[in-house]
């Protein structure tokens, strides 16, 4: 019998097709992995409440969310890494000065610092999660915020990077960047899970397609980039599979020898 491995899947552009749905071949592949005794997990930049329906559909209870800042193992919170509060205040002040919207996100909900923003609506609309942040400019006070979204044009985040060493800024949309704890990553979040489970690196696998997947794809030798992903992801991975709109997950698992 094959030794138990753990396979981490990014969501957008990877486990999900461009319509934010799960292909039949992907669903069948996930079922086959579980029948073989492997652990199937998610590693995403999304908030937990942005993919609870996916976890339910695929019966997955282990995940890395917020790019490593909120990690859950078998339904129990294993690790959290909230944003530094004084730096978050500085970010808020700078954003107000620059007329840039911010969305504050904890493990349960999200709120925006402005009541209406076309950039928020347009960029978050691409996620197809069926929800938008409501307005609460003080939502970040007195609670743990695991990720923020800063809405600015490409290049405008540089001014924030120069003043906020406690944060990393990773662009995911022409109008928006993820604001993360400096040095945090999916790969580090994955390490919390694999250390707890005692699964060695050679039995860890990762699938991704974008900039926030690079450390994961580089750090886990058995890594697969989607054929529809960024060139940087393909360069970082061991294997390159087909598109997320085709049978990219099933094909990638075959490349990796898991199916």
Domains counted in the coordinates: how many? 2
Q: Report the major sheet.
A: 8 strands, mixed
Percentage of residues assigned to helices: 25-40%
Strand order across the biggest sheet?
A: 5-4-3-2-1-12-13-14
Structure class: alpha/beta
How would the blueprint of this fold be written?
Blueprint: E1 6-9, H1 11-15, H2 24-35, E2 39-43, H3 52-58, E3 63-65, E4 70-73, E5 76-80, H4 85-98, E6 101-105, E7 110-112, H5 118-125, E8 134-135, E9 147-151, H6 158-163, E10 167-173, E11 176-181, H7 186-197, E12 204-208, H8 214-219, E13 222-225, H9 231-236, E14 239-240, H10 248-255
Parallel strand pairs: 1-2, 1-12, 2-3, 7-8, 12-13, 13-14
Antiparallel strand pairs: 3-4, 4-5, 6-7, 6-9, 9-11, 10-11
Helix pairs in contact: 2-10
Task: Summarize the structure in words.
Helix 2 runs parallel beside helix 10 (248-255). This protein has helices at 11-15, 24-35, 52-58, 85-98, 118-125, 158-163, 186-197, 214-219, 231-236, 248-255, and strands spanning 6-9, 39-43, 63-65, 70-73, 76-80, 101-105, 110-112, 134-135, 147-151, 167-173, 176-181, 204-208, 222-225, 239-240. The two termini are 13 Å apart. The mean pLDDT is 96. Helix 8 (214-219) links the parallel strand 12 (204-208) and strand 13. The protein has 10 helices and 14 strands. It has 2 domains: 6-80 and 184-255, HAD superfamily/HAD-like (Rossmann fold, 3-Layer(aba) Sandwich), CATH 3.40.50; 85-181, Hypothetical Protein, Haloacid Dehalogenase-like Hydrolase, Chain: A, domain 2 (2-Layer Sandwich), CATH 3.30.1240.10. With 259 residues, the protein is of the alpha/beta class. The strands form 2 sheets. It has an 8-stranded mixed β-sheet with strand order 5-4-3-2-1-12-13-14, with helices on both faces. Helices cover 32% and strands 23% of the residues.
């Amino acid at each position: 019998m094959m030794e138990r491995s753990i396979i981490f899947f990014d969501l957008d552009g990877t486990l999900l097709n461009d319509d934010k749905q799960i292909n039949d071949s992907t669903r069948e592949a996930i079922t086959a992995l579980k029948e073989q005794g492997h652990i199937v997990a998610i590693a995403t930049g999304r908030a937990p409440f942005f993919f609870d329906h996916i976890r339910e559909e695929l019966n997955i209870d282990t995940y890395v969310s917020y790019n490593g800042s909120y990690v859950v193992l078998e339904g129990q919170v294993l690790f959290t890494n909230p944003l530094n509060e004084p730096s978050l205040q500085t970010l808020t002040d700078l954003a107000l000065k620059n007329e840039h919207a911010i969305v504050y996100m904890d493990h349960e909900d999200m709120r925006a610092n402005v009541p209406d923003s076309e950039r928020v609506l347009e960029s978050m609309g691409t996620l197809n999660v069926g929800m938008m942040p409501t307005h609460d400019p003080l939502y970040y006070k007195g609670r743990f915020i695991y990720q923020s979204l800063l809405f600015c044009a490409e290049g405008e985040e540089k001014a924030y990077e120069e003043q906020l060493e406690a944060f990393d800024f990773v662009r995911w949309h022409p109008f928006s960047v993820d604001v993360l704890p400096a040095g945090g990553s999916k790969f580090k979040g994955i390490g919390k899970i694999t250390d707890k489970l005692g699964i060695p690196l050679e039995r860890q696998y990762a699938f991704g397609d974008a900039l926030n997947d690079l450390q994961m794809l580089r750090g886990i030798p058995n890594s697969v980039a989607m054929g529809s992903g960024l060139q940087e992801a393909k360069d970082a991975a061991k294997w390159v599979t087909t598109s997320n709109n085709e049978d990219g997950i099933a094909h990638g698992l075959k490349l990796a020898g898991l199916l």
